[in-house]
Amino acid sequence: MGAMIGDREISGFRRGYYELLSRLFLEAPKEPFLEILGQNLESRIQAAEKVHPSLGEGWQAVRAVLSDHRGDLATLREALTEEYDLLFVLPWEPCIFPYESYYMEKELHGPSLADVRGFLRRAGLEKREGFPEPEDHIACELEIMGQLIARQEAAKETTDEERWLYLQGEFLRTHLLPWAFLLCDQLDKKEKGKFYKGIAKLTRGFMELESELMAEWGPAVAPRQPALERVTRWKGPTFDMPEIEKRRAEGAEREQADQQDPA
Question: What is the model's pTM?
């Protein structure tokens, strides 16, 4: 496969996976979405296996979870909501933080978030209204890629389509690839995350495909290394106001004493 100008089959395949994964990472799937996921699974698995082994394994894991509930979508939704909360929400569990800043700087709302926002401004895009997470959340970054592909598909001129492909390559290598595999590794280690282990496999396989597919698009980007521990950054001079006030008072007392005793 190659990201060729005017090839809507490839762009549609890519956009579809970005939109699917974004939705799954944003929240646990509800009944209507689960019903769609369960349709034509056998043919989907066979097609995915031909494209990338990990994609096939991911869809097999999804099929196994759906089969466990034998079509009871309400019970399945409850189980997946509990799984999602255990993985990403509940404070008394070792939660996974699906934010680029957490992996790259070991803090939330770090420089990576500002960089993603800067990219959006430069590309003329913005976060979807009502999107509940910051722009460096995995679901938002996946959605950004989907938006970039949609703009590519809507382009009337070859030069415009090339521009959107260039931006896709830039965002992918600068933001998604440096940390998406680490998120997949964490999900794969979670015993309580049967469904999201499958989603991690889908994500891994698709990101590996994207890395190859978009290799020739976008600027050369220096490899970014995730932080092993939180980095303390200089934030400008700090001032101990109580100490300053104390010294100011002592200086005033000395000045007053000197005026009273000129000798």
Answer: 0.84
